[in-house]
Amino acid sequence: MTSGDPFGWVGATIDGKYRVDEVVAEGGFAVVFRGFHLGLDQKIAIKCLKVPSDLDGSERDSAFSQFLAEGKLLHKLSRSTADIVQALDVGIATSPRGAATPYLVLEWLDGQTLEQMQRERRTAGLGGWSLSEAMAILEPATRALVVAHEQGVVHRDVKPANLFLAEVGGRTTLKVLDFGIAKILAGERASGRLDDASTHAPDTTDTFTPRYGAPEHFKRTYGRTSPATDVYGLALCLVEMVTGKTALEGKDASEIYLATSSLSRRPTIRALGGHTSDAVEAVLLRALAVDPQRRYATVREMWDALAEAAPDHAPVSRPTSVRPSVRPALAARPSTTPPPPDARLSRTSEQVEEPAPIAEAPASRRDGDAGGATGWLIALAVLVAGGLAIGSRVWGSRPPPPEPVVAAPKPVESAAPDAGAPERPLGLAGRPTDRMVRVPATTFVMGSDSDGKLERPAHRVTLTRAFYIDMTEVPAAAYALCEEKGACTKRRIHSGDTVETAFGGCNDAKERPRHPANCVDHDQAAAYCAFAGKRLPTEAEWELAARGSDERPYPWGDAGPTTCWMAIVPGVTGACAEHRGTWEVGVTAEGASAFGALDMAGNVWEWVDDGFDAYPTSDVTDPRSPILPGGRGVLRGGSWDYSPQSAKTTYRLPYLRRSGHVSVGMRCARDANDDGG
Questions:
Q1: How far apart are CA 629 and CA 232, in angstroms?
Q2: Mean pLDDT for back-to-back runs of 10 residues, the chain (677 residues)
Q3: Is residue 659 domain-shared with residue 518, that is, in the same domain?
Q4: Could you write out the DSSP letters of every residue in 65-123?
Q5: Can you name the residues that pair with 462 across neighbouring β-strands?
Q6: Domain end: 339, 366, 394, which one?
């Protein structure tokens, strides 16, 4: 334990709300405490800044104002997505020793950084991850960066040390740290220069880690830092994860600058001796272009391009005892003994003390930058956001697995986003219908003897062929393309030839492109799947994809849905509780099935290929009920306007095949025979 407490806070309470228990790290500019939130009854981290005594009154007031403003902005950003370490409060308090203390309160986390995990793998001689595994691990980071970019914030220091695999509430999640190092674009917004911000040199000193720096970090002639800078950092992380090697080599900042700006050798997977497809290599070459204007403009664009270049890199089947995640990707990690506390704390001190600001590289930091009011103000900007990174160096050491692969994040699009937007990012991928999950051939129990009569009897079903099923429900934009090509008919609320025109609710492809394509009947759903080179899943295939082979009553496990991020059905908590209607496909990252499929509980009902029939009383192989003229089809998965009971994996709803409703959509499937499955 680090003993230094220049403020005398240990044993005291800050603002009557936060009990300070012990010092866990101390650096040149800040002290990190373990504390306890008296109101919420939970552990917290408290980061207190050391204010230089030689600041005059105006400098001190300016510094405190900047600290509070950036702290509030960081709180707002972290509240927008759980994929960022949560900033709970910011303030200035007088310490027991009479010092004015700017403080930042953050959630307390257990886990380890991606950097630590990579180091363990190298020590064990395991090499890199597969591309599928690397994409799965980095998916939450992508969601966090997209949310940040949409709020006008650029991280500027994306690296493995700022990607933290945390155990939160019994679940594992990857969180992005150090968003205070982020370049806050609020200044440009206030001055009316946000729209052309990418064409002007920044006005403030950048802070970044040279080994993960983009060319524009080192030299202003490449342009200002922007979302394309985060594209560069994320691509470097991916390359290192796949190859198991350091992407940018160099003994000092000068050599690293030469490596990052070399036109003859870009740090791609192939350049580091790895193997990948031409399509993936092309994505990385663009993401790692020297000229930021030649890169993808945003992380969303890069990740969608990568998903399209590697469409078969979908989640693999996962152990049923854990939340769907990329635990299989980490299974090869050897068990390790947690590093001694002193080692973890020393790394914390190094991070707190060395924000590594670089203005013009390859020149080293100027001596005058580190001292006086100017140096402290620069450090303050780093530390405010750097407070979000405390957990990676201090809290725990148990290595948890990261989040599941979800398709590239984007907030709900609506006519009034401020009124109805969710507080967390939605699922991913620019073309969700291109993202599919693989389901192996197997024998499983279909139906249930404990639920409604339509689900009885439970019986054993053998599927002799593996198949793929869409990761998400088909979005409105994808169906619109089918309409444009003349392969699909217009979606309307209808029953047979009777069309309801007085009632709205069909998701418009322009206004809600990523919401599900609803208002489709069985024939329209089948026509779209055929257009996409796929088919509707059979009822047995759908249930296996949702239920797995372990008879789970809900896609994610045994307990019913509690939040919007598990299922879009009535009675759950979150933004959808006050909202009627659909949400974007891919929202339900916490409700992923055993095979990684999303949206299988709620949002919209989904057509299957079978006609409705009673279940057999004996074991069956590759069942498919015939579609009879005028007969009913089957809807699965529940919807936003139906009972939460419909979220169960066994729930069936007979429905007229020629009817389209606001709560009815689809997802497609295809055989896996073409890939040896």
A1: 56
A2: 74 94 79 90 87 76 79 80 85 89 87 89 88 88 88 88 80 75 35 26 53 88 88 96 92 82 88 92 94 92 89 41 29 30 28 30 32 39 39 28 30 29 34 74 95 92 96 96 96 82 77 94 96 97 96 94 90 73 89 94 96 95 90 92 88 91 94 66
A3: yes
A4: HHHHHHHHHHHHHHHH-TTBPPEEEEEEEE-TTS-EEEEEEEE--EEEEHHHHHHHHHH
A5: 443, 621
A6: 339
d(CA 592, CA 496): 34
What does the pLDDT read at residue 253?
A: 80
Residue 417: enclosing H or E segment and its boundaries?
A: helix 417-420
If asked whether residues 623 and 482 sit together in one domain, one would say yes
The whole-angstrom distance between residue 418's C-alpha and the CA centroid of its chain comes to 21
CA distance 349 to 394: 10
Six token digits for residue 309: 């270049």
CA distance 570 to 644: 6
Laid out side by side, the sheet with 632-636 consists of: 652-656, 632-636, 605-611, 664-665
The single residue listed with the structure tokens 């405010």 is 384
CA angle, 509 as apex, 478 and 495 as ends, to 5°? 90
Pairing of strands 620-621, 459-463: parallel
Give the CA dihedral 404, 405, 410, 415, nearest 10 degrees: -70
Question: How far apart (Å, rounded) are the C-alpha atoms in residues 328 and 133?
Answer: 8
CA distance 178 to 366: 24
User: Distance (Å, rounded) from C-alpha 550 to C-alpha 542?
Assistant: 15
Which domain range does residue 163 map to?
113-339
Q: Which residues contact 67 (CB under 8 A, 6 or more apart)?
A: 49, 90, 92, 102, 380, 384
Model-wide pTM > 0.70:
no
The radius of gyration of the chain from alpha carbons, rounded to an integer in Å, stands at 26
* Cβ neighbour number for residue 552 with a 10 Å cutoff: 18
Any domain includes 66: no
Q: Which of 284, 304, 339 is the last residue of a domain?
A: 339
Contact 71, 104 (CB under 8 A): yes
The secondary element (H helix, E strand) that includes residue 526 is helix 522-531
Instruction: Answer yes or no: is 449 within a domain.
Output: yes
- DSSP-derived secondary structure for 549-580: TTT-SBTTBSSPP-BTTT-BSTT-BSGGGG--
**SS3 (DSSP) at 411:** coil
Domain holding 259: CATH number?
A: 1.10.510.10
Phi, psi (rounded to 5 degrees) for 620: -135, 160
Distance CA 327, CA 558 (A): 19
In whole angstroms, how far apart are CA 664 and each of 214, 273, 521, 581? 46, 48, 8, 11
